[in-house]
Protein: Sn-glycerol-3-phosphate import ATP-binding protein UgpC
Organism: Saccharospirillum salsuginis
Amino acid sequence: MGALTLTSIEKTYPNGHRAVKGLSLDIEPGEFVVLVGPSGCGKSTILRSIAGLESLTGGEIHIGDRRVDTEPPAKRDIAMVFQNYALYPHMTVYKNLAYGLKNRGVEATEIDRKVREAADLLQINDYLDRKPQQLSGGQRQRVAMGRAIVRDPQLFLFDEPLSNLDAKLRAHMRLEIKKLQRKLSATSIFVTHDQVEAMTLADRIVVLNGGEIEQVGTPRDVYHRPASLFVASFMGAPAMNFFSTRVDGGDLVLTDGQRLTLPAEQRPALNGVTDITLGVRPEQIAVTETVRDGLVTFDVGMGEELGVSQLLHGQVADAEVVLNLPKFERHDEPQLGLSWPEDAWHLFDSRSGQRL
Ligand SMILES: Nc1ncnc2c1ncn2[C@@H]1O[C@H](COP(=O)(O)OP(=O)(O)OP(=O)(O)O)[C@@H](O)[C@H]1O
Ligand SMILES: [Mg+2]
């Protein structure tokens, strides 16, 4: 029995909008699961339904062997951390941390012990007497986490808790959350639309599209074996390059007639499909200054210097293509030859969008 089990959960809002479409998921004890997907795909709805802030219109939710979707939120033993922190502005940090425990009738000495323990863990001991508006964004975020930790819940839910922070603090807090989660072995679900956050935090990533699961897997799985065009285009920045092709014998033919010879071990995967979208990640493409047979012809466009690497934009047949080159390479030629290793080919059925 998993720590949390979602069984065919459904949420149709009163206005008729079906935000979650029969979604099932099993989360292991201590696992850190990240829900990722574009705006409106149902991430918050799923989290709010687990917390009990929304009622399901179908399916069941279990924590261990206890059914919770029929229980009121207070009985579910879940703590949620929100994007806007939702701290009480008129209370000190100490009182913000203590409030939930006090409400549940926990004894004062026990409250004090738990508050100080959480404050230690989060390094907010020095701010216990301050009010939230006297804190920086990162400190407020820590208080919000502290409020979840003192409750010692069975499950932590995070709804985009880092999205109000600037890029540097965000990266720092991301690491802090990961360390903390490891230390507490707390079963957690973390929602974000930031694919870097998803990749770095998750034991497993759940990619959502329109209220349904597109893929569940480790960050590696999802990145290196995306199950669909949707996942392939969502995970990775800059995004994977896609080429429309038709199969001809053992070749993929681009829209301008260029022929690419498919690696032999990829051929059985085609399985009779004739319209293939070929995906190649920008960082897996190598450039050669001469254009010759066996290389793909690339019309050079704009370059962008990123410091650690260099993006080179351009065109292959009718496709906009971006290369992520490891070091600064100056290219004055109008055309370059492209190649990539055998493990860089991602083949998708153009009609269904599914990986072959
Ligand atoms: N109370 C509501 N009534 C009707 N529709 C709603 C309600 N709340 C959300 N929705 C719709 O349900 C869908 C899912 O919303 P949800 O907030 O879960 O998306 P999300 O994935 O969290 O998006 P974001 O990344 O923008 O936060 C959206 O199309 C949204 O417009
Ligand atoms: Mg949301």
